[in-house]
Design brief:
It contains 10 helices and 5 strands; from the N terminus they run βββαββααααααααα. The protein is α+β, with helices and mostly antiparallel strands and 202 residues long. The longest helix has 15 residues. The radius of gyration is 17 Å and the shape is globular. It starts with a strand and ends with a helix.
Length: 202
Amino acid sequence: MIAKLKGRLDSTGLDHAIIDVGGVGYLVGASSRTLAALGPVGEAVTVHTEMLVSEDSIRLVGFARAEERDWFRLLTSVQGVGSRVALAILSALEPGELHRAVATGDKAMIARANGVGPKLAQRIANELKDKIGAVPTSAGAAGGGFAAVPVGGHSADAISALQNLGFKPAEAGTAVAAAEEELGEGASLDALVRLALRKAAK
């Protein structure tokens, strides 16, 4: 499983980027939002990735932020939402906007994405509502939508780590926000995850 790529941006297309990692070019599908966030060709980049394995292919999808990858996983768990539709939704909506739309059942906002009709938008809202927690605060929207998590630092990776351990996005976001507030912005990822785990377990 390839979870992250760190290398140089070789080139970009309408729906993908090629990341040069040690002389090997990885073709990574991506939303327009992620492609815009990668910066100029030739610069160093880090992308969070999801590997999609089917009978006849193995593909990578890349995300500028871990929150986008987490939303991609949630979206593709809904029947009728494949990788292309999920990326279209993430191109149209910030994670915080998507969180708010799902939490409030705003199918019109979800349907702004190409290829998403009213019925599919309603299904997405219905199936994901119980998985995402409460409506985010404005600070939460800035941090990715799951909770009031400060932007930057190791918060996104810490949230992802807690979710991989089985915590819901809202629980993980709240615990990481509390841990980062206590430890300060300079905290290491390891220390942040350890303290967040203790807070989430209370």
